[in-house]
Amino acid sequence: MAGPAASDKGDRPDLLTAAIFVGFGALGLWQTRVLEGGTLAQMGPGFLPRVVCVLLIVLGLVIGFAALRRDAEPIEPIKLRPVIIITLSIVAFAYAATHLGFVIASLLLVIAGSLADPGGKWRTTLLLAAGLTAFGAIVFVYGLGVQVPLWPV
Amino acid sequence: MNTRFALPLAAAISLAATTAALADWPTDRPIEMIVAYAPGGGTDIMLRTLAPYLEADLGTQIPVMNRPGASGEIAYTALAQAKPDGYTISSLNTPGFLTMRIDRKLRFDPDDICPIARIVEDPGMFVVQAASEFNSLADLVAYAKDNPGAVSIGTTGVGTDEHLAMLQLEQSAGVDLTAVPFGGANEAKTALLGGHVTAIGLNVGEFASAEPGQIKGLAQFAGERSILAPELPTATEQGFDVLMSSERGLAAPCAVPEDLRAKLSDAVDRALANPEFQEKARQQGLALSYQSGADWSAAMPERLARYEEIFKLIKENQ
Amino acid sequence: MNFVDLLMLGFSEAMTPANLGFCLLGALLGTLIGVLPGIGPTATIAVLLPITFFLPPLAGIIMLAGIYYGAQYGGSTTAILVNLPGEASAVVTTLDGYQMARQGRAGAALAVAALGSFFAGTVATFAIAVAGPTLSSFALNFGPAEYVALMVFGLLAATILASGPVLKAIGMILIGLLLGMVGTDQATGAERLTFGAVELFDGIDFIVIAIGLFGFSEIISNLERSGSEGVTVAPLTRLWPTREDFRNSWAAVLRGTGLGTLLGLLPGGGATLASFSAYSLEKKVSRHPEKFGTGVVEGVAAPEAANNAAAQSSFIPLLTLGIPSNNMMAMMLSAFMIHGITPGPSVLTNQPEIFWGLVASMWIGNLLLVVINLPMIGLWVRLLTVPYRLLYPAILLFCCIGVYSMNNRIFDVILAAGFGLLGYVFRKAKCEPGPLLLGFVLGPLLEANLRRTLLITQGDPSIFIERPISLVMLIATVVLLGLMIFPAFRKTREEAFQEEEA
Asked: Considering CB atoms only, which of B7, B63, B66 is closest to A142?
């Protein structure tokens, strides 16, 4: 598992792992700082979360130091287009479903989501959006009784 | 397949709803009924059973919307923010509605929410295994006096009906009991049957509809014996000051005109009088106990004071 | 009446045209909601519950039961085809099932899942019929102390699940535990890790995490890799499993069935624990554990058999003791109660037609599901040939509706989008999300039971070694931990296996 530049040190995915683990642990400790730990017989709400957080931080440090000594390995390249567009279209769906109704939300999600993939044709996208929206309205809203308004309230 | 199945039913329900026409308020659009608990819970099933009768009585549609979470705070917040036009009502449960304001900053003002009608009052009670050596609350108390902390009582969490009842018993009898929280009444019951806890708290409704021969009741915490368990003595009869019951009903924003709230209250009263509904309620173990919104509101301050006192006890114990 | 008479009575009840129809309807509806990500059987049954007022008791219960086990069947379909677990018990099916699908063996994976489930369903149904009352006492013996031991063992066993390094898997479990603690603490009512958000008071829903970590992040990284053009699956080699597939999977199905039947009895995460442990067990006993996660058929057969067996056997505590072992069973309990029937020993004697009719209908329903699903496999597999550009917006939409429909609120959808981003980061860090989900599901049970145990014993931990079931499981945990801590030992073991194969 040698990286491209064998002279460099640092397994990047593992360093990222270490950062995630330490980050979660620290965030957890900070959030539970006001909670009582209690005793073994009367365990407080803060007892177990803190144990878990400390373990996470220790684990993260172990993984991090081990990664530093290993040969360099890069993180897979990042493309921001799908990350941003997919996430934003999901968020847009949530707001639209509540305030503008299912039909608009669904059209929005499918059309905006399709932009994440550069190769799409507008005609196909619009047809797909219409078809999926109709299907969703019939199956989910009418059929399974999902509680969402169809049209703007 | 499933859509074909659900559609005629929805149609049938709405057809039944358009049979009677009253004044113009409820008939021009549906009244949204918010349920503060997840689908399938006791409150949800009760209100879903009741809704068709209210629909027939008011001549409108009443779709049920579940807004579960934070023991009702999410639903009450939604209710308080709804337009006060009488088209949004919600479930209301005590002691939750009363106790949540005691130690928590709320996102809504409890004074903005006015009860419409109480539907059920279900007293709490303690039960033990059918084969248990304890036959009354006094037996349990005597044992607890000799073995402080050894009696474990299964509850559904801090500040719940069972826990509040246990604290009252500790206070009234001067004993030390151990509360063991469970995820729900069913989990607690499993632990009781497995012999892992001494006793558990249940509602009389749950007790009355349980398999006979597995568990027995020690005392119910009602002022008067519930119609569902007329044989079981109350704690007060046994000399312990323990009063605890959970109530379920409906509420609307206080800004809704009073005559609309009164109409809703009367509609609930009539639906509860319907023998067909009563039969369904009996099968679900619902202890029907109608109270008008005004009466229910009037009774709340006293209950609140009692809960505040118990909460003070919890704080002191910690 | 003897056993055969009772079973005949059950079949005669279940085979009436009306009951058969409701069984079919329930199974179909269940398959549909199982296939649609996010829409779970619990919510569906809740919506349909009032409708059963109008049906005869047995018909209503048969239909609801059909939805429940139908959803188990359907859930594995999305797990295999698009790497999306509809519920906790389908998480492990994604590990090897999805890999099989990408290698053009989706048909084989689906068929093995269906047949394995059918076999497990049959065995578990007969277990209910023959040994229901006896088995239920096993569930009662599980007190808080036993649960703690079981959960610790289960969590540790889960590290075997991940194909990556053990330390990363343990870390992911810990993050799962932490996420499971978000919300109001059951024992004290204190808010934990909620960042003050009232929407988090009741914790995070499993669906939110599963759809975020699996559904959304899968879409993002597929598109990132090379746009929609790049997402191709190997051409379909053959629709049905090969003889070798069958030879490799029958033992796994047997083990999965046994484990599932037993663990399904336990309240709480029965079915989930069953599918995870079945997978771990297969990997442990396998001669080629390193191949797990790359599309081995045992990795689909065992957990699918286990979760279906567990789904059936979770009826045992309900039918024999009147105790529901999970949310679904609580819903079934309401369905019984609406009809004025209280499940328990007296139903067995007073209304045998209800109990035996349900048991018989479960077997019939499982048979129907295989008959429905096997021909459907051709259709499902064809779904994979739909260009990804058309497929992913559909998956996106179904995921969003699923998450939104749980509580009808914006917050959950945004949270799921956040977990999508987190899942994306996990992929970049080469961390597998499977163990996280197990930690998330089992964590709250572990904590609650640990605290209960110590409350009951007033702080004395010796109870864990005094109770035999708990002691056995803790010893097993220590042995397992030993195996993992001494990599030298592990290495010699692996070498031994390789020599044996060579």
From this structure: B7
pLDDT, one tens digit per residue, over B29-46 is 789 899 888 766 678 878
Contact C390 A128 (CB under 8 A): yes
Respond yes or no on whether the N-terminal peptide bond of residue B95 is cis (omega within 30° of 0). Answer: yes
Interface with B, mutate which of A142, A148, A153 (most B CBs under 10 A): A142
Cβ atoms C77, C260 nearer than 8 A: no
Measured between beta carbons, which residues in chain C are less than 8 angstroms from residue B197? 456
Provide the residue type at C243 as one letter. R
- Chain centroid offset of residue C287 CA: 25
CB-based contact C347:C341 (threshold 8 Å): yes
Give domain status of residue B268, yes or no.
yes
Note whether C224 and A78 are within 8 A (CB).
yes
pLDDT > 70: percent of chain C = 86
Identify whether A137 is part of a domain.
Answer: yes
Question: Is C342 a residue whose pLDDT tops 80?
Answer: no
Task: List the domain range (segments joined by +) for residue B180.
Answer: 122-244
Question: What is the DSSP track for C131-180?
Answer: HHHHHHHHHHT--HHHHHHHHHHHHHHHTTT-SS-HHHHHHHHHHHHHHH
- Mean pLDDT of all residues in C400-417: 88
pLDDT band at B14 (very low <50, low <70, confident <90, very high): very low
Residue A5's pLDDT is 44
Asked which of B228, B244, B260 is the last residue of a domain, the reply is: B244
Domain containing C465 equals 3-501
Q: What percent of chain B has pLDDT over 90?
A: 41
Could you tell me if residue B52 is inside a domain? yes
- Residue pointed to by tokens 């007190």: C143
CB A107 within 8 A of CB A129: yes
Q: Are residues B288 and B219 in the same domain?
A: no
A56 & A104 share domain: no
Check residue B19 and give its pLDDT: 34
| Residue from B312, B311, B309, B316 nearest B158 by CA | B311
A40 lies within 8 A of chain C by CB: yes
Q: What is the DSSP letter of C87?
A: S
Q: How many domains does chain B have?
A: 2
pLDDT tens by residue, C16-62: 999 999 999 998 888 888 887 666 676 677 667 666 767 888 888 88
How do residues B82-109 score in pLDDT, each as one tens digit? 888 889 999 999 888 998 888 777 888 9
- Average pLDDT of chain C is 82
